Amino acid sequence: MRNVISAVCISCGAEHEADDAAYTCKKCGGILEVEYDYGYIKSRLTREVLAGRQDFSMWRYRELLPIEEDSRLSPLRVGWSPLYRAKKLGERLGLQNLYIKDDGLNPTASLKDRASAIAVVRAAHAGKHTVACSSTGNAASSLAGNAAAMGLESFIFVPERAPKGKLIQLLVFGAHVISVKGNYEDTFRLSAEAIEKYGWYNRNAAINPYLSEGKKTVSLEIAEQLGFKAPDYVAVSVGDGCTIAGVWKGFKDLYAVGLIDKLPRLISVQASLCCPVNRAIETKGPLEPMEENTLADSIAVGVPRNGEKALRAIRESGGLTVNVSDEEILAAMGLLGVTTGVFGEPAGVTGTAGIKKAAEQGALPPGAVIVSLVTGNGLKDTVSAQKAAQEPSFPGAGMIQIPPDLDVLIKEMESGFGNKFS
Amino acid sequence: MRNVISAVCISCGAEHEADDAAYTCKKCGGILEVEYDYGYIKSRLTREVLAGRQDFSMWRYRELLPIEEDSRLSPLRVGWSPLYRAKKLGERLGLQNLYIKDDGLNPTASLKDRASAIAVVRAAHAGKHTVACSSTGNAASSLAGNAAAMGLESFIFVPERAPKGKLIQLLVFGAHVISVKGNYEDTFRLSAEAIEKYGWYNRNAAINPYLSEGKKTVSLEIAEQLGFKAPDYVAVSVGDGCTIAGVWKGFKDLYAVGLIDKLPRLISVQASLCCPVNRAIETKGPLEPMEENTLADSIAVGVPRNGEKALRAIRESGGLTVNVSDEEILAAMGLLGVTTGVFGEPAGVTGTAGIKKAAEQGALPPGAVIVSLVTGNGLKDTVSAQKAAQEPSFPGAGMIQIPPDLDVLIKEMESGFGNKFS
Fold first, then answer.
1. pLDDT score recorded for residue A184
2. Where are the beta strands (DSSP E) in A83-159?
3. Is A217 within a domain?
4. How many CB pairs under 8 A join A and B?
5. Edge-to-edge strand order for the sheet containing B15-16?
6. Domain containing B380: what range?
7. What is the DSSP letter of B60?
8. From A155, which residue of chain B is nearest by alpha-carbon distance?
9. What is the mean pLDDT of chain A?
10. CA B45 to CA A302: how far, in whole Å?
């Protein structure tokens, strides 16, 4: 890879060959980060080059990605999700320049497709026939889907609490699914042992540094969609820490090659009862485990594997932390749907819940350009959506059940059903 | 609308003003079809114009759509869904040039977004604040989502059997949902009565001729994605008949403006126990009602409202009819997922099931360019997907549940779990 210099340990700084199959630091076991030759890339990835490029997927940024020039790319169309101006939602929150990046419109319906696309491309290039990971759900379904499209086999380790909708995706994509009777930590450990034993390609985002490189494409898109400007704030829901680290890496890379002239501040949003990353920021203390106590399953991570990268990203960006309750997450789901037509899963709307809370606390300037990253589609977890629609705070109109009789409908309309406007 | 000449009744040929609010023929009550000024459009919508256009959504074809030049467009990004070359699936079916058009990646996860986008644009232009429809689900969720994004209210009539995942979308988008204790026919009738009484904008595809104009954009995209070539065959699942009529209209319009030089043959695929359109073709008889007897809820239509348009489309194209059982639909769901990474709902994969059956019967030339239109996302109906994964014909590897213990996994692998390859 001419564009990649090395993989550097974020803990001890040791440099590794970029193609090295050992994904964690050989010296200290720390997590690696990919270092690019920005001078080389700067001359090749310009606004003009991008303006002429018809590839509207994450591969439009291939100069900034850790793939070989001759690598076979993954067939599913990942990335270039829409960035919507959320005028009505912004008005409700007192924010004039609020945007929603709907990453639930990726092929398997979450942002994780960006990481899995990199994984299957690298796995195929390395001659591997099988890929594997542990996941609370979205990384799993994205790996299964991208592997199927690429012609690879997949082994997926899921904790038993993963929502049904997510398991079914795995099965339909032909994955070998191993449901582990235990929490995310147990699941992760078993997957690591099996991957080592069987020599599968490792798509555990916390270990494999190439995956956050895939995730960073969401930031490259946001900046290009805003006309090569970084927003003032980007709100991201945080679980394992890999996504927010990837988001930050994307903006830093763009800044390094001169495509944006400032960096955004990150808003790290976690669930109040499972917020180890935010707690470490707020207390300036070390990362300490917490219970996995939130219905937002994608961010229910008590021991964040990429916590250090996440902490560094939040700190470097001068970021904010916001913790939101499950009730606030459910309320954000309805608010987002009603005002924008975007349906996010609980972890997908957690960023929006955080923006709402921060705005209400006066922590966000009304004129700031703010992007809320919706990381997964609400269809993945309709049980939570059902709960959201039953909350007293739900802003929608609701449902009546009646026989096929206009007079009955008229009575319902007169009794108030017709006046419930969002 | 400078590009539109009139709306012509498909039954009696009577011409109507294009902007007329009466959606069915004033003379005979027949369904109207929009007629364009192809000479005018031909000079404005060329390959060169399209090559320079950065709008990758259905609005890229606005010259061929029934909207005013100054209409406010709908905010959600509808259309430009990916067209995938399905090599592995093609190999299994003995077809060398098989493609999958994944319309499940639309904002509310189905092709119906294309019709609803037109509806909300026309409704807003007409100064309406409320839109309404009856639907088995996808038209409903697409209308609710597009209305929310456009800032309109929606009233949605659904038959009580609609899958839960689809109802939840409606609620999250803030729709007024009226669940009707009856079948699709009862639901449709009540919605028509209510729309008349309250003066809402009518998004019932069978009545409003502008909606199939939105649906036709899927064909415009297919042709452009194939390099301005029409495929030899396009397989479409058929319920109400509006989608296949729209698909056909798209190719005919493209042919009329000289952007393609031939027309495809349609493959009309219905469920064996609910196939009124195909039966009328096969028996050369009239459309007669059938029971709504299939798990593919989006095409469980016993009395197709757009049946005449559908029949005309299939006949004009020299089309084929294929009827598939629910078992064949479920098997197609797994086959599509395992070979392509695309997850379709039952009606979404019915076209693929039809192609499989037609190929096995030798009805399709192995070298023909064939497109299977996947009309909706599998996440909308995970209950059916669960059934699919439990069928003996399911081609995937399946699931095991184990404690977090490598030795247990090794035993499972040795007992055969590791050898189940798709």
1. 80
2. 83-85, 97-102, 130-134, 153-159
3. yes
4. 263
5. B15-16, B4-9, B32-36
6. 83-109+230-390
7. G
8. B418
9. 94
10. 55
Which residues in A lie closer than 8 A to residue B149 (C-beta atoms)? 84, 340-342
* pLDDT value of residue A414: 93
Each residue's pLDDT tens digit, A99-148: 999 999 999 999 999 999 999 999 999 999 999 998 868 999 999 999 99
Over residues A394-398, mean pLDDT: 90
Nearest residue on chain A to B186, alpha-carbon basis = A404
Comparing CB atoms, the residue among A148, A181, A334 nearest residue B337 is A148
C-alpha A216: how far from its chain's center?
A: 9
Nearest chain A residue to B143 by CA: give it: A341
Split at pLDDT 50, 70, 90, the class of A253 is very high
Contacts with B333 from chain A: Cβ below 8 Å: 172
CATH of the domain at A365: 3.40.50.1100
What is the predicted pLDDT for the residue at A136? 67
Task: Answer yes or no: is pLDDT of A421 > 70.
Answer: no
Q: Which of A174, A180, A341 shows the shortest C-beta gap to B148?
A: A341
Question: Which 3 state secondary structure label does DSSP give A246?
Answer: helix
Low-confidence stretches of chain B (pLDDT beneath 70): 20-22, 136, 164-165, 205-206, 421-422
Token digits for B398?
Answer: 């399946």
Q: At B247, give phi and psi (nearest 5°).
A: -55, -45
Q: Could you tell me if residue B297 is inside a domain? A: yes
Instruction: Tell me, yes or no, whether B97 lies in a domain.
Output: yes
Contacts of A349 in chain B (CB under 8 A): none
Please judge whether B82 and A76 are an interchain contact, meaning their C-beta atoms are less than 8 angstroms apart.
Answer: yes
- Residue B144 in any domain: the answer is no
* pTM, entire model: 0.96
Residue B178 and residue A409: Cβ atoms within 8 Å? yes
Total structural domains within chain B? 1
